[in-house]
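Students often ask why we bother predicting the structure of a whole assembly rather than each chain alone. The short answer is interfaces. A chain on its own may look different once its partners are present, and contacts between molecules only exist in the joint model. In this exercise we take two input lines together and write out one structure for the complete complex. Read the inputs first and try to guess which parts will touch.
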Amino acid sequence: GAGVSQTPSNKVTEKGKYVELRCDPISGHTALYWYRQSLGQGPEFLIYFQGTGAADDSGLPNDRFFAVRPEGSVSTLKIQRTERGDSAVYLCASSPQGAGSPLHFGNGTRLTVT
Amino acid sequence: RKEVEQDPGPFNVPEGATVAFNCTYSNSASQSFFWYRQDCRKEPKLLMSVYSSGNEDGRFTAQLNRASQYISLLIRDSKLSDSATYLCVVSLGPSGAGSYQLTFGKGTKLSVIP
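Now the answer. The structure tokens for the assembled complex follow.
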């Protein structure tokens, strides 16, 4: 079946611009996560949704970052006034509700801020 | 101190060799432990969960030492296809990997040489 889909796969933007990154989770998965991975680092937690609500947004680095999941399926990560330090691969993952469920990651969006 | 620490490697081993990776975690309240595998420019994928009693999956053996807050992964009879980065992952949640925030280490790079 279809896995987690992220679009775009690559995004190049200028410093100061606004970007939106989209994640389409596996159908039926209620939990959705956003992670950020910089070169040579492990994925860093940003935010976790259970259904439509953000259950844990403690990983968002500052108020330029915001994420929504209005219908409990597709999620959008929004970054305002992008900075060069925002350049990274943004990974989305989903999992079915319940214990013992592994995270299924998408291929990520590679964001480059010039 | 980093929450999850791993030797970044690289570990360069010949085919057929046995190789072991170690990982330490700082939060003694951690309850769930995993090894993920990440190929170059790909998303992380769950390799195996790590249970208190230790567990084995084919050529892979995972061990957990709660007292020392230490996790290990042993790969026997290494194959060329084992070349990847191995990420140590820790969660405060129960064994449901999909239910709680995962904290990733930076990863240990393995290259299996013909």
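Check your guess against this: The mean pLDDT of chain A is 92.
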